[in-house]
Design a protein that fits this description.
This protein has 173 residues and is mainly alpha-helical. It has helices at residues 8-23, 30-36, 41-47, 53-56, 59-73, 79-90, 99-110, 113-136, 141-164.
Amino acid sequence: MVRWEPGTRERLQAAAIDLYISRGYDRTTAADIAQAVGLTERTFFRHFADKREVLFSGQELLEQAFLDGVAAAGADASPLEMVESALSAAAPFFSTERRDHSRRRQRIISENPALQERELLKLAGLATAVASALRSQGVPEATATLAAESGVTVFGVAFGKWISESREVDLRE
């Protein structure tokens, strides 16, 4: 087994995605993923709590980008302008270089009901965090919730179009 090589987390993620696509998510174990890159299962669990987290890690960075976007909009911005700022702040996470990875990840999620549920929970958590940020900017409860839910819906639709488009478009488009 390889004792240490740079990029362990990324190598594990790439191997997991490849195995999930070729074997199926349910037929792939953490040990399979670790073995594919010459590591032990124990090493896998040093980097990920479970095999789902390979697909969902990094959510906190995306959420922080949304929150930073709300804060950057300024106190005089309308709730929808704050949400627009949040969406713009998150767009750089979805560069052209990440499109293939995102497409493959979404394919895996789409084929597994438990992963679909996890994805929906992730989006609901994002909406809750954005609504809280809007409220902290003085937006009333109902307006904050509606704006945040609308923003996450817009994000979901834009993401779906971004991964399905045959032409290379920026997520902001």
